[in-house]
Design a protein that fits this description.
Elements: E1 2-6, E2 9-12, E3 17-24, E4 33-38, E5 45-50, E6 57-59, E7 67-72, E8 77-82, E9 91-97, E10 114-115, E11 119-124
Parallel strand pairs: 2-11
Antiparallel strand pairs: 1-3, 3-8, 4-5, 4-9, 5-6, 7-8, 9-10, 9-11
Length: about 120
């Protein structure tokens, strides 16, 4: 599976961005998916996850209420809508996919088998 993340960019605090992660090589419609991020000088951290059906999502406390994870299985693509962005959201954002079916969202890196290349999000104050 190849994961291509896109949609990052430079935005002012309070603004919005929508990240996309398109999968190729294999369908991810039965896979749990996740978003992680890594800020400069920090370890990669969990942002959000979604179950295989899209019926269940889970968010890091730092983004809860501002970010929304969704999926379009027909397009083999997942999305992360990011609203009310803050400077502390600045990071490289990575999408990830599980090889197996996920009844519930997974928040740990070791749960994921495939990773995208990342897209830069920069939020200015």
């Amino acid at each position: 599976v190849q994961l291509q993340a896109s949609g990052g960019g430079l935005v002012q605090a309070g603004g919005s961005l929508r990240l996309s992660c398109a999968a190729s090589g294999r369908t991810v419609s039965n896979s749990g998916m996740g978003w992680f991020r890594q800020a400069p000088g920090k370890e990669r951290e969990f942002v959000a996850a979604i179950s295989s059906t899209g019926g269940s999502t889970y968010y890091a406390d730092s983004v809860k209420g501002r970010f929304t994870f969704s999926r379009d299985n027909a397009k083999n693509t997942v999305y992360l809508q990011m609203n009310n962005l803050k400077p502390e959201d600045t990071a490289v954002y990575y999408c990830a996919a599980r090889r197996s079916y996920s009844y519930s969202p997974r928040q740990y890196e070791y749960d994921y088998d495939y990773w995208g290349q990342g897209t830069q999000v920069t939020v200015s104050s």
